[in-house]
C-alpha cells in the first residue's frame, strides 16, 4: 500500500510539467465569399485572444478570398486547456456575415460540433475555441449592404433564445448559455434538441442531476433521433456507471452508425470495459470514414495490441507513418500530448498515449521530449520501471534541460523503489 502511495505522489509531482506540451501556437484559416459564392478580396479578419494580454492578429483575404493565420499564440482560458478567440470581420459594402466554424485538436478530432451563426459586420464578435496545436476553420458568407430607411429608435432586434444559447454553448460560455436555454425550452418544451444541448452545457458545468433529467426527457421526446443518448452516455460515464454509459452509447450508435463522435466513444469505452471486439469494429469504421486521420489508426493499432493481434497492430501504426513519413514522429507525439492534456484521461486514453509516444521514440530515438512524456504516461499506468528508463534517456539527451534537476530527483526516487 505504501508503494502505491509513493507512486501516486510521484505522479502528482511530475504531472504539472506535461500540460505545456499542447500549448505553443494554434492556427486558423477560412474562406470569405459573397452570397453568390464569389471570393471577397481584401476583407479584414481579426482574431483577438480572450486572455490577457489580449493579443490581436489581423489578416486580409487574398484574391481567392482565403486567409490563413499560422501562428496564433495559444493561451488556455480555463482548465479545459482550450484557447478562446473573439473573431470579427471588416469588409466594405457588406453588413452581415454568416459564419461557419469548425475547430479541431492537433489529432484532428473535433473540439465541438461544427456550427453556424450570424454576426453584424463591425458588431459583436463570434467566439471560437481552438486547442493548442489545433486548427480552426472559420468561413464567412457576406450579405451586400442594402439601402433602407433608418430603423425607429424604439425598434429592437429580438433574438431567438435558442440561437443565443447555441452560440454561447459553441463558444464555451456554458454558464452564459443556461438562461437562454431555459427560455428556449420554455418556448418549445417538446423540442428534444433544445433539451439535450442544454444537458450538454450542464454536463460541462458539473450539474449532472439537472443534465440527466434534461437528456432523459429529450430521449423520451424523440427516441428515434440521435443526440440525447450521446449526452446520457457522457453523464453516466462521469458518474462512474460504465454499464449505463455503454447502453446509452449503443442506442446512439444504432441511430447514428457513422457518426464519428459516437464511434470514437464506442472505441474508447469498449476498450475500458473489455469489449475489445466492439471497440475494434468502431475503430475500423472510423478509419474507413476518415482514412487520412492518424488518430483513428492509432486507436485501431492500440486496440489490436490490446487483443494481442500484433501484426494488425503494426500495420495500423505503419499507416500513420505512410500518411506523413517526414512528420510521423511529431504526429505520434502531438497525439500523445493532446490526450495527456485531457482533464481526466481514461485507462484507454493512457494506453493510447503510451502507444503513440512509443512510436514517436521508435521513429526518432533522440526525441527527448517524447521520452519524457512517455515516462509520465508510464507513471500513470503504474509502470515505474519503464518511467525510470525513459527519464534517464531524457537526461542523456538533454543533460542541461531546465527541468534536469527535478527529473534527476524523480529518477532517484524511482531507483530506490527497485
Fraction of residues in helices? 40-55%
Strand order of the largest sheet: 4-1-9-6-7
What is the CATH topology assignment of the largest domain? Immunoglobulin-like
CATH architecture name of the largest domain: Sandwich
Radius of gyration: 24 Å
Poorly predicted segments: 1-24, 146-157
The top-level CATH class of the largest domain is: Mainly Beta
Largest sheet: number of strands, sense, barrel closure: 5 strands, mixed
Number of helices: 16
Question: H/E series, N to C?
Answer: HEEEEEEEEEHHHHHHHHHHHHHHH
Domain module count: 4
What percentage of amino acids are in beta strands? 15-25%
Secondary-structure content class: alpha+beta
Straight-line distance between termini: 15 Å
Q: Using the alpha-carbon principal axes, give the shape.
A: globular
Arithmetic mean pLDDT: 83
Under CATH, the homologous superfamily of the largest domain reads Carboxypeptidase-like, regulatory domain
Which terms would index this structure?
single chain; 418 residues; alpha+beta; Immunoglobulin-like; Serine Threonine Protein Phosphatase 5, Tetratricopeptide repeat; 4 domains; five-stranded mixed sheet; four-stranded antiparallel sheet; 9 strands; globular; disordered N terminus
Provide a descriptive summary of the structure in words.
- This protein is an alpha+beta fold.
- It folds into four domains: 130 residues, Immunoglobulin-like, CATH 2.60.40; 94 residues, Serine Threonine Protein Phosphatase 5, Tetratricopeptide repeat, CATH 1.25.40; 61 residues, Alpha Horseshoe (Serine Threonine Protein Phosphatase 5, Tetratricopeptide repeat); 95 residues, Serine Threonine Protein Phosphatase 5, Tetratricopeptide repeat (Alpha Horseshoe), CATH 1.25.40.10.
- Helix content is 51%, strand content 17%.
- The protein has a five-stranded mixed sheet. Strands 3-2-5-8 form a four-stranded antiparallel sheet.
- Helix 6 runs antiparallel to helix 7.
- The chain starts with a helix and ends with a helix.
- The N terminus is likely disordered.
Amino acid at each position: 500500500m505504501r508503494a502505491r502511495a509513493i507512486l501516486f505522489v510521484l505522479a502528482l509531482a511530475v504531472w504539472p510539467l506535461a500540460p505545456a506540451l499542447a500549448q505553443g501556437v494554434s492556427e486558423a484559416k477560412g474562406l470569405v465569399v459573397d452570397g453568390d459564392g464569389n471570393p471577397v478580396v481584401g476583407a479584414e479578419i481579426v482574431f483577438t485572444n480572450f486572455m490577457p494580454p489580449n493579443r490581436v492578429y489581423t489578416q486580409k483575404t487574398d484574391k481567392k478570398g482565403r486567409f490563413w493565420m499560422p501562428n496564433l499564440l495559444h493561451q488556455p482560458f480555463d482548465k479545459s486547456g482550450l484557447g478562446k478567440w473573439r473573431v470579427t470581420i471588416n469588409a466594405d459594402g457588406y453588413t452581415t456575415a454568416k459564419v461557419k466554424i469548425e475547430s479541431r485538436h492537433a489529432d484532428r478530432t473535433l473540439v465541438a460540433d461544427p456550427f453556424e451563426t450570424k454576426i453584424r459586420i463591425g458588431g459583436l464578435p463570434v467566439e471560437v475555441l481552438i486547442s493548442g496545436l489545433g486548427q480552426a476553420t472559420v468561413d464567412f458568407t457576406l450579405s451586400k449592404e442594402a439601402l433602407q430607411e433608418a430603423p425607429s429608435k424604439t425598434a429592437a432586434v429580438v433574438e431567438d433564445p435558442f440561437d443565443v444559447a447555441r452560440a454561447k454553448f459553441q463558444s464555451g460560455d456554458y454558464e452564459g448559455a443556461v438562461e437562454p436555454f431555459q427560455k428556449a425550452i420554455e418556448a418549445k418544451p417538446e423540442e428534444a434538441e433544445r433539451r439535450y444541448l442544454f444537458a450538454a452545457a450542464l454536463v460541462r458545468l458539473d450539474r449532472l442531476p439537472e443534465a440527466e433529467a434534461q437528456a432523459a426527457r429529450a430521449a423520451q421526446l424523440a427516441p428515434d433521433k440521435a443526440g440525447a443518448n450521446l449526452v446520457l452516455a457522457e453523464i453516466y460515464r462521469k458518474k462512474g456507471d460504465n454499464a449505463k454509459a455503454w447502453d446509452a452509447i449503443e442506442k446512439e450508435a444504432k441511430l447514428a452508425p457513422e457518426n464519428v463522435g459516437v464511434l470514437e466513444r464506442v472505441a474508447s469505452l469498449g476498450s475500458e470495459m473489455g469489449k475489445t471486439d466492439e471497440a475494434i469494429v468502431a475503430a475500423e469504421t472510423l478509419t474507413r470514414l476518415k482514412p487520412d486521420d492518424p488518430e483513428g489508426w492509432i486507436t485501431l493499432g492500440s486496440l489490436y495490441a490490446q487483443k494481442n493481434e500484433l501484426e494488425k497492430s503494426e500495420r495500423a501504426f505503419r499507416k500513420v507513418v505512410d500518411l506523413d513519413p517526414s512528420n510521423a514522429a511529431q504526429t505520434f507525439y502531438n497525439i500523445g500530448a493532446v490526450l495527456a492534456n485531457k482533464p481526466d484521461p481514461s485507462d484507454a486514453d493512457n494506453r493510447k498515449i503510451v502507444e503513440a509516444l512509443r512510436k514517436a521514440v521508435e521513429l526518432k530515438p533522440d526525441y527527448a521530449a517524447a521520452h519524457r512524456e512517455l515516462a509520465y504516461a508510464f507513471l500513470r499506468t503504474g509502470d515505474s520501471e519503464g518511467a525510470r528508463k525513459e527519464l534517464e534517456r531524457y537526461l542523456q539527451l538533454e543533460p542541461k534541460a531546465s527541468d534536469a534537476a527535478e527529473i534527476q530527483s524523480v529518477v532517484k526516487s524511482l531507483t530506490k523503489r527497485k
